Amino acid sequence: MPGRIQSIERAAAILRLLAGGARGLTLAEISRSLDLPKGTALGILRTLQHVGFVEQDTESGVYQLGGSVLRLGTRYLDGNELRTRALNWADSLAGRSGESVRIGTLHEAQVLVVHHVFRPDDSRQSLDVGSLLPLHATALGKILLAFDPHAASEAAEGTIDLPGFTRNTITDLESLQQEAIEVRNNGWAWELEELVEGEVAFAAPIWDRRGTAVGAIGIRGAVERLCDHDKPRMDQVSYVRDAARAISRELGSTPW
């Protein structure tokens, strides 16, 4: 069985120490508190700075937690609160739509499925919680690209891969950005056989008390059930948007 990696344990110890220091800590304080040589502590701090987990004040020289690690913590809290608040509404949406329901959040330029309700029939289905879905080929992902500033900036920087899954998948950045504009204007997103042949999905954004899009909720099903002549069934879109509004209110969002 592989052993533990000492450098990672030391990095974690520094992060925990900085989390408890409201005003930041100097190199000497970190070194002394963790009984680490200054050179070792400095090397770890510089690495953590490079990945954005630690920041150093240019005037005082003290170290504190960086924006990247704080963002990770916020995502964790958002995902857990989101799932807890959405349970009843996701069940209700599955019942109204007759389709499976997924709730997703942004995770490393992908959609992390944090909750999944099976389609309410006797068909064989597999649980998708914990699955990662592509941003550009899913309705959930398009919502995040349109309304999540982190996803939008990653797309603008060209750091998101755009592989093709079907002949309908958007694989160029310009088309994807145009799609995001349309999603923002409409307030909802859909995919038509862009991830899986024969499947359609609709999604809408979930907002928190800060006015931040913390996730998306959507339904997925067969083309013949969710479309009329390749056009989305607007009654199903309305069910999704209603559920998104209800969950947003649970999270403290101002009604709109």
Automatic annotation (TrEMBL):
InterPro entries: GAF-like_dom_sf, HTH_MetabolicPath_Reg, Tscrpt_reg_IclR_C, Tscrpt_reg_IclR_N, WH-like_DNA-bd_sf, WH_DNA-bd_sf. Pfam families: HTH_IclR (PF09339), IclR_C (PF01614). Keywords: DNA-binding, Transcription, Transcription regulation. It comes from the Bacteria. Gene3D superfamilies: 3.30.450.40, Winged helix-like DNA-binding domain superfamily/Winged helix DNA-binding domain (1.10.10.10). Residues 5-67 form the HTH iclR-type domain. Residues 68-253 form the IclR-ED domain. This is IclR family transcriptional regulator. It comes from Lipingzhangella rawalii. The lineage of its organism: Bacteria, Bacillati, Actinomycetota, Actinomycetes, Streptosporangiales.
